[in-house]
Amino acid sequence: MKIRNERFITTLGRESKRLAEEAKNFITSDPDHYHLLLHIIDHGMMPQDKACRLWADSLGIAWIDLRATLFQPKIVGLMPKASAEKFEVIPVYQMGEAVTLATANPGDTALKAKIEAQMNQKVSMVFALKEDILDAIAVQYQSVDFIETLAETTAISFPVRKTISKEALEAMAGNEAIIELARSLMLLAVQQGASDIHIEPGETGISVRLRIDGVLHEKTRLEKILLSPLISRIKIISGMNITEKRRPQDGRITLELRNRSIGFRVSTVPTVNGEKA
User: Fold this and answer.
1) What are the pLDDT digits (tens) for 105-141?
2) Per-residue confidence (pLDDT) for residue 2, from 0 to 100
3) Which of 60, 29, 26, 53 is nearest to 40 (CA)?
């Protein structure tokens, strides 16, 4: 469904002649005004925050920057992840009787009615970019339960080995489940506002701890068989030497989402129970 926002076109004309001309030329070939908004942002014609605020103001609704918003986990949980992905919306928080719901199309009254019926809850629609909504879904619906289930099923596929070749390490690090496990741990850290992720091997298992507000919290324990694949994956994506296990190494990971990038500094250190990161 095409999204129209005639007032936004008028507002751009007030901002500058260049934007007015750009809008006129763009909508000649693409009448979806939301695509025009994305075009303006993607081509650096206006900062994203300002463009989104002008768009929302011209619709007479609020804009919410999901990259800087504090979500209420219980409110996010009112909608299943599958529904959030299907409708491309996300519950953010509750104020009074209404749940604030972020959507790229806040004027869709049919969608609003459908979601209110599904949630059995009054909702207040606010505007957010679709890409920011999808990023928020990826982060906010991450859970320890999902990570533990993924880890349990993944551990079964890795045999115990006394020695592992470089080729075997690379193959394990490229395993789809290991890739998802490493990404899920980073997403969990972002969701919980952690400054550090500690992956520490013990004699029989792996402790995963997050530093939140200066305090380390153990979030889960993984089977020891996952240590080499997981550390190898971390080394590869942070630019480290995958075969060097006797010396500390430093690197950096960039977690790429649809509309933002999050950087992680990485260190690996050998211990008597294997490498920690």
Assistant:
1) 998 999 999 999 999 999 999 999 999 999 999 999 9
2) 66
3) 26
Token pair of 219, please? 């979030």
Residue entry with tokens 């491309």 = 88
CA pair distance 88, 206, nearest whole angstrom:
36
- Distant-in-sequence, close-in-space partners of 269: CB < 8 Å, separation ≥ 6: 248, 275, 276, 277
Closest CA to 268 of 199, 221, 214, 204: 199
Distance, CA of 244 to CA of 193 (rounded, Å): 31
Among 27-41, 96-110, 174-188, the range scoring the smallest mean pLDDT is 27-41
Report which residue type is found at 173: A
- Residue 15, both tokens: 């901002």
User: Which of 269, 190, 206, 192 shows the shortest CA–CA distance to 235?
Assistant: 269
Residue 94: phi and psi, rounded to 5, are -115, 130
21, pLDDT greater than 90: no
Q: Do 22 and 13 contact (CB within 8 A), yes or no? A: no
Give the pLDDT score at 44.
92
